[in-house]
Amino acid sequence: MAGAAGTTILAFTILTLSSLLLPTNSDQFSRKLNKREMGISTKREKLSHLHFYFHDIVSGRNPTAVIVAEAAATNSSATGFGMVVMIDDPLTTGPNVSSKIVGRAQGLYGSADLTEFGLLMALNFVFLEGKFNGSTLSVLGRNAAMAAVREMPIVGGSGVFRFARGYAQARTHFINMKTGDAIVEYNVYVLHY
Predict the structure, then answer these.
(1) Which of 10, 87, 123, 191 has its CA 20 to 30 A from that of 65?
(2) Of 67, 61, 139, residue with least CA distance to 104
C-alpha cells in the first residue's frame, strides 16, 4: 500500500512540475491570428455613409440626457467646465423626434474646455434597424459644439462594424437656448468589413 501511495505522489509531483515548466496556451499573452480564420482577409473593406439625427433632450419629464456631475460652485467657467452628462439619445431618420428611430446614442459627454464650449464625447451609436441592427460604432473625441461643422473620430465598433474606423461630422440642426434641447445632424463615414 505504501508503494502505491509513493508512486501516486511521485507521479503527481512530476505532473505538477512539468506543468510549471512547460508553456501552455492559457498562459500565453498574445498570439498571431490568421486573418482568413477571422473572416477578414477574403472580404473587401467597405465604406459606408450613415445619416441620422441625434436628439439630445435635457428638459421635460422624459429627458434623454442627464447631468451626473458638475464642477464645484466656485467654478466660474462660462463653459460649464467639469460638467458630465450621461445620454441615451434617440437617433432618427429625420429632424423631427417622431421620425423613425434607427438607433440610440449611449454614453457620456463632458465639458472639457475652460475657454470655449468644447465637449469630450465618449459614446456608442447603437443601431436598431436594417442591416446594422445590433451593431455599434464608438465615438471618442472633441466636439467643438459651437462650430458649424464638427468632426469626431470613429474608433471602433461591433457586429457589422468590427475593425471599423472613420469619422462623424456633426451639424447643429436646432438648439433651444432656454432648455438646452438640441437636434444634431450626423453624417458618419466608416470603413468596415
Answers:
(1) 191
(2) 139
According to DSSP, the residues that pair with 143 across neighbouring strands are 119
Asked whether the predicted pLDDT for residue 133 surpasses 60, the reply is yes
Residue 60 Ramachandran class (φ > 0 left, ψ -120 to 50 alpha, else beta):
left
Q: Across the strands, what pairs with 150?
A: 170
Is pLDDT larger for residue 24 or for residue 34? 34
**More confident call, 21 vs 89:** 89
Band of pLDDT at residue 41, cut at 50, 70 and 90: low
**Residue 139 region, left (φ>0) first, then alpha (ψ -120 to 50), else beta?**
beta
- How far apart, in Å, are the Cα atoms of 132 and each of 41, 126, 127? 21, 9, 6
For 135-170, the DSSP string reads -EEEEEEEEETTSSSEEEEEEEEEGGGTT-EEEEEE
